[in-house]
Please model this.
Amino acid sequence: MRAILFAGAALFAVPAAAQDHSGHQGHEGHAEGQQAEAAPEPEDHSAHQGMDHSAHQPQVDHSQMDHRAMDHSMHGAMPADPDIPFGPPPPEAFSGPQHAADAIWGREAMAPARRYNHAMHGDQRFGLAFAERLEVRLGGEHDAYLWDVQGWHGTATNRVVFKSEGEGAFGGDLEDAEGQLLWASAIGPWFDLQAGVRLDVAPDPTAHLAIGVQGLAPHMIHVDAAAFVSLEGDLTARVEAEHDMRLTQRLVLQPRVEIELSAQDIPERGVGVGLSKIETGLRLRYEFVPEFAPYIGVEYEAATGRTADYLRAEGEDPEGLVFLIGLRAWF
Model:
C-alpha cells in the first residue's frame, strides 16, 4: 500500500512541475522564496517538433474591420504644439556676448586665440603651377606646338595669378605668345574676379589691360572669360570653356571650346570685327596620377568674317582640322 501511495504522488507531481508560471510575474516574493529549491529536470519536447501549432494562433479577419474610423493622427508625425512661438527671436537673445567664450575668459584673452584660429582655417597660403595644354599639333599647313600654362600663389580668396599661352611652327617663327599678370579675388564660392595686365610678345609687342572671371559654372564647366583693352584702345575678348567627362577612374574625355571676339577691325594684327576665331576640340587623357596625364585629341579651328578675309589675302587657309598629342600636368 505504501508503494502505491508514493507512485500516485509522483504522477501528480510531474504535470504540476510542467505548469507555465509566466503569468505570475507579479509574485516576485514567491519566486525569490523558491530560489533555494532545486530546479526540476527539463522535459524533452523533441517529440513535439512535428506538431502544427497554427491552430493555437488567434485568427483575426481584418476584412470585416472598418479602418476608416480609426485615428491614425499619431502615426508618423507628432501633433503640433500650439505653444511654440513664431516670429523673430526676442531682443534678449542678442544681449550676451557675440562669442560665448568671452563671457568666461574675457574678450581680450580670447582675441589672440580667435585670430590664430582664423589664420589656420582661412589665411593659409598655397601655390600651384598648372600646364593645361602642352601639345604637338599635327595637320594643316604645318606641324606646330602650343602651350597654355598658369600658376598662382595666395590664399583661398586672394591670390596673384600668372598665365601664358602661345603657339608656333616647328622650324618657323613664333606665331602668338602672351603673358598675363593678374590679381584674383573671390566673388563667390565658384568664381574669381581677375584684373591686371597682358603683354603680347608675338606677333607684335602690345600691352593690354585685362579684366575677367575664372571658375566653375553649373554642370561642372570650367570657364575662363576676359576682356582686353590695348594701349591703342582696341577692345577684344576671349572665352574658354571645358568640361571633364570621367569615363573611368583614370580615363577622361574633355570637350573644349574657345572663341575670340573683337569690337573693331585691327588690320595690323589680322583681326576682324565680331567673332574672329573659334576652336572646338576633344581631348582624351589618361591619368597615371592626377598630376601627370598624357592625352590625344582632335581640334577644329576656323577664322570667321573679316579675320578669314585677312588670312585668305595672305594665302593661308582660314580653317583646318588638327590632331593633338599632349600632356596635362600640375604640381
Remarks:
- Helices lie at 2-17, 28-33, 102-105, 107-122, 305-313.
- The chain has five helices and 13 strands.
- The longest strand covers residues 126-138.
